[in-house]
Amino acid sequence: MPVISQSACGKAILLGEHAVVHAQPAIAIPLSSKRVTVNVEPQIVASQGKIRVKSALMNFDDDLANLPENHPIFQAVLLTLAELKIQQTPSCTLRVSSTLPLSSGLGSSATLAVATTRALSEFLGHPLDLETVNRIAFECEIHVHGKPSGIDNTVVTYERPILFQKGQQIDFLQPGSTFLFVLADSNVRKSTKDNVTQLAWALQENPAFVQPKLEEIGRLVFEGKQALIDGNTDYLAKAINCNQKILESLKLSCPEMDNLVEKAIQAGALAAKLTGGGKGGHLLALVEERSLEAVLAALQAESGGKAFFTTLQPVEKPE
C-alpha cells in the first residue's frame, strides 16, 4: 500500500467568535499557507490493528491508544473507522507535521481532525466527501471543546471564507478585493472550552448585560460581510475594532493581547482584534499594503518572532 498524504489549512475568525456559539453569525477565513499534514504509512510487520502516531510538534511517538480520548486525532481515527464500518484496522503509522501553531486560536484541533480523516479514509480506499469530513470533524470538536459552534471545522474542511450561523446554510463569501492581515502570537495559552463555559455562565447570570453585546457582535458580522463583499477596507476595519471592544468588555481579552492590539495600531494597522478562543492565542490585524512591513516588524518584535501575514483574495464560490 502506498503512503497517503493529506493536509488541511488553519483558520482565523474575522468577526463573531464566542457570539457564534449563542446563535449569532460569524465570519471565518482560511489560512491556506498554514497547514497540518498527515501522512499514513502501512506497517506490514506490525501487529494487526496497531496504529502509531508520530509527531515532533506534539512531542508524541506512541500508539494511538495512548493519546487522550478527547484528542482530535484519536477521535478522528475512531469516527472515520466507524463511518467506513472497518472491522479490522490495517496497521499503519500516522506522521503529523505542521506549519500551523497549535492551541493558539487558529483552529488546530479542527485542522488535525480534518487532515487525519482525509488521510485515513483515503488510505483505507474510501475517501470521504466534504460533507462527511465536516461532520466527523465537528464531532471531534465536541470532544475537544465541549460546545463548539461548528465554524472551525466548516471553514477548515471547505477552505473558503464563510459566514456561519448555527442552523443556517453555510454562506460562502466572495471578497470584493484582496485583504491583507498580519497575525501574531500573544504567547498566552488558554482553554477555548473554559472560555466558552465562562461566557455561557455570564450569559446565564447577567443576560441583560451579555445578550445585547452578543447581538451587537452579530450586527457587526453582517456589516463586515457586506464590507468584505464590497471590498471596503475602511468599513471592515470599523467592524473589527468594534468587535474587539465588545470582547474586551466580556473579559475575553488579556493584557498581552491588549498590548498587541495597541502595537499593531501604532504601527499603522487599520484594525486589530483577538481571533479565536480569547484570553490569549493570536491577534489578527487588518493592514494596507503600505503598512504591511511596519506592522509585521512591530508584531514580530512584540511576539518574539511569532508573526506572519496572510492574504484573502477573491475566490470562486463553490457550486
Brief sketch in words of this structure:
This protein has 319 residues and is α+β, with helices and mostly antiparallel strands. The chain folds into two domains: 4-164, Ribosomal Protein S5, domain 2 (2-Layer Sandwich), CATH 3.30.230; 175-312, GHMP kinase, C-terminal domain (Alpha-Beta Plaits, 2-Layer Sandwich), CATH 3.30.70. The protein has helices at residues 72-83, 108-123, 130-145, 151-158, 192-205, 207-230, 233-249, 255-266, 292-303, and strands at 4-15, 26-42, 51-55, 60-63, 92-98, 162-164, 171-172, 179-185, 271-275, 282-287, 307-312.
CATH class of the largest domain: Alpha Beta
Helix and strand sequence: EEEEHEHHHEEEHHHHEEHE
Helical stretch count?
Answer: 9
What is the total domain count?
2
Question: Which class best fits the helix and strand makeup?
Answer: alpha+beta
Instruction: Let me know the largest β-sheet.
Output: 7 strands, mixed
CATH topology of the largest domain: Ribosomal Protein S5, domain 2
Task: Provide the gyration radius in Å.
Answer: 20 Å
Average pLDDT, to the nearest integer? 93
Shape: globular
β-strand percent reads 15-25%
CATH architecture of the largest domain: 2-Layer Sandwich
Low-confidence stretches: none
- Assembly level: single chain
Q: Between the first and last Cα atoms, what is the distance in angstroms?
A: 33 Å
Count of beta strands: 11
Query: Helix fraction?
Result: 40-55%
